[in-house]
Amino acid sequence: MANKTAYLDAPGTPLRIGDSEIPIPGPDDIVVKNHAIAINPVDNMISTTGLGPTSWPIVLGSDLAGSVHAVGANLTRFKPGDRVIGFAQWLIRRTPADGAFSLYTRLPAGNAAILPDGISYTDGAVLGMAIGTAVSGLNEEKCLGLPFPSLTPAQTGGVLVVYGASSSIGSMATQLATASGIRVIAIASPANFELCRQCGATDTFSYKHPTVVDEVVAAVGSDTFVGIFESISSSASYKISLAILEKLGGGRMACSPPGPTTLPGNVKAEMMIAMGEHSIPVFEHFVTQALESGQLKCQPPPLVVGNGLESLQTALETLQAGVSGRKMVVTL
Ligand SMILES: NC(=O)c1ccc[n+]([C@@H]2O[C@H](COP(=O)([O-])OP(=O)(O)OC[C@H]3O[C@@H](n4cnc5c(N)ncnc54)[C@H](OP(=O)(O)O)[C@@H]3O)[C@@H](O)[C@H]2O)c1
């Protein structure tokens, strides 16, 4: 069967389903037959604003789960038929074959991992881009510079604040920091406190509570404060995050765009960037075993919007309307 793809012909237009070739893998790529695709805010942002791409049509989509269709010549880690999750890299490769909004997608093998048999494609689809982003914010030296997650973590005595801990990237950051032996203080809506705790947070506070800054500072206690993972990056969230940093004597903050406009001298803020090679060690050496043991969970839980590429447009619109503690997924 030939490939089918959901094309975005121009910003603000509905996705168009059309025929395409099944991608050919480069030597370090795999091609995946997608069984589930998750939607990210960047898909929505680009589909409405057109910011980023320089030629059209484009194929959106970063998160996928499916079975390996073809493997590149250099690879031994995967074989056809393997169940995998992955983070497609269309945002840097810029070619239609590398977008997840297709029946078949090409991606670098380093951004993929075996999905254990007991976990559905629908659940696994929520993981890819969140892993890339959380690893950038947590582990890249320019951001928080924390140790990589471990399958056998030892407590470090460090404590991290995750703002927006019920979001996709925030819940992944909570899980991965916990797997680095770092205690996590979560800031989210009370309705999502249980989700934050399932991801490993030891303390949960509401950003709507007027004394949230003092509550978070008290919860840091005598542990070593290692920084803030800022998933929301709005003027309201920066007001709270910077007030926490001020009371704790400064520190590091990993931000999702846009960064804060002004910063005190004792605060170092850097943007996390999901795409790229920084997360390869985590995809290769942590994800599969951690999923098998239950150390890594597919959070936030998927909300299946529909079946078939035709449902991707509805999924984009549902995400645009706002989500809380869920990730939009389309099954194929
Ligand atoms: N830099 C990168 O490479 C990169 C990669 C991925 C994502 N991002 C960006 O990171 C952000 C989060 O992405 P995501 O996929 O994790 O989003 P998401 O899962 O769709 O985020 C939804 C969550 O955000 C929380 N939220 C929404 N408005 C909030 C507010 N005003 N204050 C506090 N929490 C709020 C909600 O929490 P409650 O319901 O608990 O309030 C909700 O659970 C987006 O802006 C996205 O574009 C950047």
From TrEMBL:
Swiss-Prot/TrEMBL keywords: Oxidoreductase
MF (Gene Ontology): oxidoreductase activity, acting on NAD(P)H
InterPro entries to which the protein is assigned, alphabetical: ADH-like_C, ADH-like_N, ER, GroES-like_sf, NAD(P)-bd_dom_sf, Trans-enoyl_RdTase-like
Residue intervals of the Enoyl reductase (ER) domain: 12-330
Gene3D superfamilies, alphabetized: Medium-chain alcohol dehydrogenases, catalytic domain (3.90.180.10), NAD(P)-binding Rossmann-like Domain (3.40.50.720)
Quaternary organization: Monomer.
Family matches, as PANTHER family: HYPOTHETICAL OXIDOREDUCTASE (EUROFUNG), ZINC-TYPE ALCOHOL DEHYDROGENASE-LIKE PROTEIN C2E1P3.01
Record-stated family: Belongs to the zinc-containing alcohol dehydrogenase family.
Name of protein: Enoyl reductase (ER) domain-containing protein
Organism: Extremus antarcticus
